[in-house]
Amino acid sequence: MDAAKKNKIKFEMKGNLSILMGLVVLCIFFSIASSKFLSASNFINILLQVSNVGIVAIGGMFVILTGGIDLSSGSMSAILGLFMAGFCVDNGFPVPIAIVLGIIMGIVLGFVNGLSVTRLRMSPFIVTLAMQSMLRGLGNVYSMGTTISGMPDSFNFIGGGKLWGIPFPVILLIFLFILAHYVLSKTVFGHQVYAVGGNREAAYLAGINVKRIELTTYLIAGGLTAVAALVLTGRLAAALPTAAVGLEFSAISAIVIGGGSLSGGKGNMFGTLIGVLIIGVLNNGLNLLNISPFWSQFAQGFIIFIAVLIDALNLRRIQDKA
Prior knowledge:
Largest sheet: 2 strands, antiparallel
Oligomer: single chain
CATH topology: ABC transporter involved in vitamin B12 uptake, BtuC
Radius of gyration: 20 Å
Shape: globular
Strand order of the largest sheet: 1-4
Order of helices and strands: HHHHHHEHEEHHHHEHHH
Strand content: under 5%
Number of helices: 14
Number of strands: 4
């Protein structure tokens, strides 16, 4: 292992440890403030509540590592949930077929985002913001502004069922994080994702198909957003056109809090998982203390501001040294 790689691993471990300490401090505070916080059932509940955010954050991490961004995941989750529920309830499709179709649609929407960014050279921010608005509108058109319910129990199990006494979404979340960590840290594709985000031109000169890598990350994000839509719809036992509002913000927050850089090339799945847990613990703890959810929103935004500020200062320091 060369010196540069060793230094990168040490830097990431140090960053992850700092974020983990922040999570521990938060847990200690809420444990003292509320007797209901420190229990196995509450921690399982936290994991269940953040499962769809975590799944979207996994896909979003791939995109952000290349220097892109996806602001469409909340609206995409809502419309895919409506489609999958509609396939079962209105069209009578078997649950597995409805799920497969939903995931394919998510990948297709991710393809549209990725194609617009890589081939049409449009701004990721503008493209996905426009997609966010279009999909939210289409969701209301498709459902006529109403809720779709009455899905089979096998559909709802994915969002609300238990396996070995553990909520299925929690098992799914942990599995996907482990899989994504392996892909990013152990595969050629993962190394190429980091290379593209770290230095796009150097990656191109090294023979990496930069556009293909970027496009693939949007496909991954779209597919995982479909999985998150399935989890959320199953947990609610209903699909709503207004579902998942702000989901993209929570996912991006988790990535940034977890050490990811919006400029690309920095971050890892372990840090993102901690970021997801910090958001979950913060929301849960404030709820147990009967504090307005608006304060949770403020706290989340403030943490992101500090995280981005630190990242910007570090980037400036590195540039000054160069």
